[in-house]
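Worked Example 4.2. Read the sequence first, then its structure tokens.
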Amino acid sequence: MNKVIFNAFHKRIMRFEKLHAHKAAKFLLLLIGFYILFTLIFRFVFSIQLIELWTAQITLKIFELLGYSGEIISGEPMQIIFPFIVVLITELCTGILEFSIVASAILATSEISWKKRIIGMIGAGIVTMLFNFARITIVLLALISSGIAQAELAHDLLFRISLLIVIIGYYAVWFYLSVKK
């Protein structure tokens, strides 16, 4: 009797594991596919250098509002020349990486309707952009007030934290709100 119950229970567990393994594999394949698609779009449809310029322009505007003057030197990497330092704006400064990963995860979540996924992707773009400019501003303010050592620490920590907060945090909140009745 115990063996029969065990075998029935074991079969149910195996079906459950196969179903979830299939869902996980589908999610990962879609995630990778969408990430490759976003990478190609940002490489060939939009100009990375144009996005870097846009990032530099907004950063400069933020600091002009804070009372600092500077100028942008277009090139690779983009440069913002402040009286106290030269700031390099590279692709990693633009938020493209964070957006591409979280948007790919959202689009790969096939259990959620397309409407909610598109809205989630647009929200991811806004959140990524806002968080990215906050990160750049905090690092530069740390540089102004505390020097290069503190700014480097702030830069490294905020970049890593932003990867976690923006990607995992936004996705978790979006998913929760999307499945909530």
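Now turn to a second chain, presented in exactly the same format:
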Amino acid sequence: MNRRTFDIASDARHLAALFMDIADEDGVVDEARYDDWMEALGLICGEIGDKLQALRAVKSRLLSEAEVLKAEAKRVSAKAKQRERGAEQVRGYMMELLIANRELNPEVDKVETPDGFVRLNKRTSYEVAAPDLGEVHEKYLTIPEPKLNKTAIVAGHKAGWALNGITVTEKVTEHVMEGG
């Protein structure tokens, strides 16, 4: 039977809850109900194992497809970078031509083309250095905000130190582990 994962998990949870109904309020076990429960348990456990195996196969296929796509993306990315380098090379050629044109025609700063124009732009930038920051007035300095050293805090928490003003909350997450 090829059932959905949700249905199998729901049946397993329901079966786990039914375990408490096998015995009456005096603790006497109803053997027939116990045998039925054990049979259902075997079926559900078999379905869980089969479904997990199928899901592992799907996951494996998806990961291998992802690797193929990553390789293709890497190839396409390399091709795009090659094209970008080519465009930068062409930009260099354009700069050489514009500089040569400026030497021929000092008063002309742009060249008209049938589909627009090309010109050299000037951009001004400043390089700032201070050999001794102690001599610089504080209004010209930026001081970084203090940050918590989380590694040291967790180590102190694990060692049992009292950390005033700090709350450490332990979070536990579960992960799927596969073997075989």
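Notes for the reader: The chain has a mean pLDDT of 90. The chain is about 55% helix and 5% strand.
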